[in-house]
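Customer ticket, subject: "Can you confirm the structure for Protoporphyrinogen IX oxidase?"

Message body: Hello, I'm evaluating your service for our small team and ran a test protein. I'd like someone to confirm that this is what the system normally returns, since I don't have a reference to compare against.
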Amino acid sequence: MLYTIIKALHIIFMVSYFAGIFYLVRIFVYYKDTDEFADDKKRILREQYTFMARRLWNIITVPAGVIMAVCGLVMIFLNPGLMKMGWFHLKLTFLIGLAVYHYWCWKKVLHLKALHGNTLPTANIKLRQANEIATFILFLVVFTVILKSMVIEYWWQLIAGFFVLVFLIMMTVKLVNKNKKNK
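Agent reply: Thanks for trying us out. I re-ran your input and got the following:
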């Protein structure tokens, strides 16, 4: 029963963590969107977005990520057989990618604070595309966990499907931004 409770907590805090990461990068996009605004409006919004990003990071994203990771480690401790399963190694590999993305987000939060209201040097389209990285990682982890042993057997179909999904999402982002510029 303890394992099931820890697993439920792991999933709850995984959802909270991803909600924080998803919204955090949107805040970066909104901050960058202020480049075209009048100075007073730009200053007010940038101060607010910086405040929101720091609060989201410190109060929701990082604590949820820590609890998610601790619950994951407890599950490994309670069921060390996980470390012998191929699908679990794949999940851990994707989590390394998530750690890199987490680090990138943390650096952006620090960068926002250091900018003191100045513009982000990152292109808006790059921020919008970076916003999708967490979505890709979430897809990879969830499909890996749900499909488990099938991941190893049908790996090439899953990889092909994943790249089709990535392509469709990236093209949608580009199309939406193109239409937004034309308005």
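A couple of notes from the result: DSSP finds seven helices and no strands in the chain. The chain has a mean pLDDT of 89. Feel free to reply with more questions.
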